[in-house]
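Cross-check.
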Amino acid sequence: MSDLRPLRRELRRQRRALSASAQRQAAASVARHLAGWLHFLHSRRIGHYLASDGEIDPTSALLRGQARGAQGFLPILHPFAHNRLLFAPHRPGERLILNRYAIAEPDLRRQVLTPAWSLDLVLLPLVAFDRSGARLGMGGGYYDRTFALDRPWPSRPLLVGVAHHFQERPQLPMATWDVPLDAVVTDRELILIRCR
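Predicted model, tokenized:
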């Protein structure tokens, strides 16, 4: 597999270069695209992330989901399984702690943890994507290991990448352990890959 570090660096630089106004507009567009999608409307347990490093903030979309009764879940580094995630219920504004990577997450000691397979839909951050469902993340493999469930959707969560439109690439390499996305939502469109 080719070295993807230069691509990661360049796309992360482009994300960080966006103005606060452009980031707010992108987040609002993503929320609008998701608000009209039946799979999102029917999801009651939605995994999400806290935006950093120029990622699109999914909070607006999540608030729309919560307004209709959905519950949000944030990832927590699994305390025992290497490079895996658990999820904990979370509402915007609730107290968070920093994990070993200085990423905010719910306090493991104060939560009833939720296994990844029990969620309906997960909004995933990414660095790059293609229309076949390939996702380039930060390189740690946390999401791939967590969602490497030998079950097709709908018996597992629907995996939805969230990205700026310029993060799309014609084709990305996929390793045998990579878990493909079911859909991608960008500031310009909702791309359905493995679900309709």
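The two ends are 31 Å apart (CA to CA). The chain has a mean pLDDT of 91. Passed to J.P. for a second look.
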